[in-house]
Amino acid sequence: MTYTSFTPPRRTLMGPGPSDISSEVLSALSRPVIGHLDPLFVGMMDEVKSLLQYAFQTKNEFTIALSAPGSAGMEACFVNLVEAGDKVIVCRNGVFGDRMIQNVTRIGAQAIIVDSPWGRAVEIDKVEQALIANPDAKFLAFVHAETSTGALSDAQALCKMAQEHKCISIVDAVTSLGGVELKVDDWGIDAIYSGSQKCLSCVPGLSPISFSDKAVEIIKNRKTPVQSWFLDQSLIMSYWSGAGKRSYHHTAPVNSLYALHEALLHLHNEGLENAWARHKLQHDQLAKGLTKLGINFIVPEDERLPQLNAIYIPDTADDAKVRNYLLNHYNLEIGAGLGDFSGKAWRIGLMGYAARNENVALCLTALEDALSQS
Amino acid sequence: MTYTSFTPPRRTLMGPGPSDISSEVLSALSRPVIGHLDPLFVGMMDEVKSLLQYAFQTKNEFTIALSAPGSAGMEACFVNLVEAGDKVIVCRNGVFGDRMIQNVTRIGAQAIIVDSPWGRAVEIDKVEQALIANPDAKFLAFVHAETSTGALSDAQALCKMAQEHKCISIVDAVTSLGGVELKVDDWGIDAIYSGSQKCLSCVPGLSPISFSDKAVEIIKNRKTPVQSWFLDQSLIMSYWSGAGKRSYHHTAPVNSLYALHEALLHLHNEGLENAWARHKLQHDQLAKGLTKLGINFIVPEDERLPQLNAIYIPDTADDAKVRNYLLNHYNLEIGAGLGDFSGKAWRIGLMGYAARNENVALCLTALEDALSQS
Asked: Is B75 on the interface with A (CB under 8 A)?
């Protein structure tokens, strides 16, 4: 067999991630590799830490980027905090709430499931009932921005409720970080994880995570060892503890971290509030155009994620045919439906660098063309 | 606080990894991101699979690159194959054999430890005694190329012995793949993992792994679920099952996989045997020069890894001072000692693209200079 170098086309990425990446971030990615214990690299990791603290709006000392995708970040939060036999209230309103449940049960812990409809925010009242009915629950876990449905939940209210009921909160911010308001310290979030390839507009493969001091205390006082060696955060923490103190754990993904540093730098320079406003503005533009095309949103307006627009596929349209047309004719990727929404929905991402006038304009024109073909 | 883009210097990487990377691989890394479910990307992943089959010398259908570093590859092998209560014979002759033990015990399985001296190959006789003494052992695990000590073990003999005693073999090939002879099918290896950042000369962050059909059967017939959701290979397999059949699991590290594809392409074009011979040739050159400098190897000649040269720090030399001098004066990284060898050894890597005349020449001259300064 003969092989040749892979030369991908230049796509516009408006699916559920990976999102569009700026040329500056791609350029940072391909800078010369240096050692993961090189003092210069350790210094850069320190900056990644403080830039992540800014992005998460936290002073948490334990704020790092995990050397694996967001789903490993989710697992890291659960396996480090939760022990066999613990009771965890898990809110499920999409694919990723369901994945949380799988994480809880694989630990041998008990998941108390609070179901809310797909395409809606987590129902606060139901969560409160579950908290009252389960006074022995130790954790409350939910997804801030459900990537599978485009629904935004009220993280602030949920975390307040968790505190009132002496529960530790575990929050999935994979799609929310950088795209909508998120304030870890103000909202009292205890454990949070995200992904590099959504609103941060970095390459996929890293998972920013942060633990409050209270969460760190729980990790330090576990009765049993963390079941995963790779994800054991007590080992990871000393790997991220800065110049002179770093102890070897694994080899960090050096180049991906260059890219994350650059992407976070851009977010810092733009300012978080400005980034949130930009996502909202572009979402409004997109929504106006989609409505003109007669396309309906799945999520009610006040629960919608600006950065991930889940829409019903028009009855007259062929799901795969339209997406392939967009891809082949316009090099434009939009996302298919996931789980319950498979074949019924499209997901249009406006994440990070993709939340720009050019992208919205292309998407609306291309979609109109594609729909007229089917 | 003000942040600026991180611009690393151009180092020559002759430590235990990450290793030097060619400009072609760096260039592949920074090609435009496309979706991880894009048909073109799925096609490239198929090529990565067959290129990895070539590198591992296997027809194993289950041959993929895990979206996390080699230590996650290690954990993936253990958590998927081993269940609580199982008996695993683990050979320990350095840091990574010890890490295997930690993986086994975190599963709730029993590790039967066979210790061989640091800086030596695994002692075959001792392993055979352990196999005889533990007829109920299900697995034999060992490190082919110990990165912490520079010792090469006889994987062929060990795997043959495992088969004779009806044990499944689990082999750490993090530093061996691409650098020394390794034949998964001929040697009857059941589960094997490696890292992208050693002799493959790709960026760090990926772990090539391969399971024999026998190992896959064990995974399929587990009595208990795999404790890790992220590393559950029954889920991963359908993610890597090619066009039309792919089911969503996580977002693959798209750009790192471009780089791995390119790095494997280079290995394929050079030819495995040629790559092995090149590592040996450069090692001989380096060894000759080191001997001239009066420097002694830790590992006896016939157990030495060509790609990782562990040497005693001369009595007259200051460990940190010499390494810092090399780094600051020559932009040359060599590795410190690890574990038992901390402060006693240096590790000079000649991995992948770093196994070149230029590197050996620079290293010898620079080291001579550095030693004369202390």
From this structure: yes
Nearest alpha-carbon partner for B178 in B264, B283, B299, B96? B264
CATH number assigned to the domain covering A12-18+272-373: 3.90.1150.10
Q: Of the candidates B204, B261, B336, which has its C-beta nearest A36's C-beta?
A: B204
- Encode pLDDT of A65-80 as tens digits: 999 999 999 999 999 9
Chain-chain contact of B255 with A1 (C-beta, under 8 angstroms): no
Could you count the other beta carbons within 10 Å of the beta carbon of residue A15? Answer: 26
CA distance A31 to chain B (A): 7
Q: Does B317 touch chain A (CB under 8 A)?
A: no
User: What is the arithmetic mean of pLDDT over A259-271?
Assistant: 98
Which of B23, B27, B30, B332 would best serve as a mutation to test chain A binding (most A beta carbons within 10 A)?
B30
Query: Residue B11 contacts by C-beta under 8 Å, 6 or more apart in sequence?
Result: A32, A33, A34, A35, A38, B327, B331, B332, B333
Residues of chain A in contact with residue B106, where contact means CB-CB under 8 angstroms, are 225-229
Q: Which residue of A has its CA nearest to B263?
A: A5
Asked whether the CA dihedral B176, B179, B181, B185 is positive or negative, the reply is: positive
Do the chains contact at B11 and A20, CB–CB below 8 Å? no
- Quick check: bond before B18 cis, omega within 30? yes
CB contact under 8 A, A13 and B31: no
B203-248 tens-digit pLDDT: 999 999 999 999 999 999 999 999 999 999 999 988 887 666 777 8
Q: Where in chain A is the domain with CATH 3.40.640.10?
A: 25-268
CA distance A30 to A19: 18
Q: How many CA atoms lie within 13 A of B37 on its CB side?
A: 26
Which residue intervals of chain B bear CATH 3.40.640.10? 23-268
Residue B180: phi, psi to the nearest 5? -140, 165
Give the Cα separation of A234 and A251 in Å (integer): 17
User: Domain B23-268 - what CATH class?
Assistant: alpha beta
Contact B26 A26 (CB under 8 A): no
Is A347 annotated in a binding site? The answer is yes
Which residue among A39, A75, A265 sits closest to B3, beta carbon to beta carbon?
A265
What three-state secondary structure class fits A308? strand
Residues of chain B with C-beta less than 8 angstroms from the C-beta of A253: 69, 203-205, 253, 256
In this predicted complex, what is the ipTM? 0.97
| Residue partners of B298: CB distance under 8 A and separation at least 6 | B119, B149, B150, B310, B311, B312, B341, B345
Could you read off the pLDDT of A122-154 as tens digits, one per residue? 999 999 999 999 999 999 999 999 999 999 999
CATH 3.90.1150.10 intervals, chain A: 12-18+272-373
How many other CB atoms sit within 10 Å of the CB of residue A85?
A: 12
The residues pairing with B111 across neighbouring beta strands, listed in sequence order, are B88
CATH code of the region A25-268: 3.40.640.10
Q: Which residues of B touch A4 (CB under 8 A)?
A: 265
Residues A68, A173: Cα–Cα separation, whole Å: 15
Supply the DSSP symbol for B353: G
pLDDT in tens, B11-51: 999 999 999 999 999 999 999 999 999 999 999 999 999 99
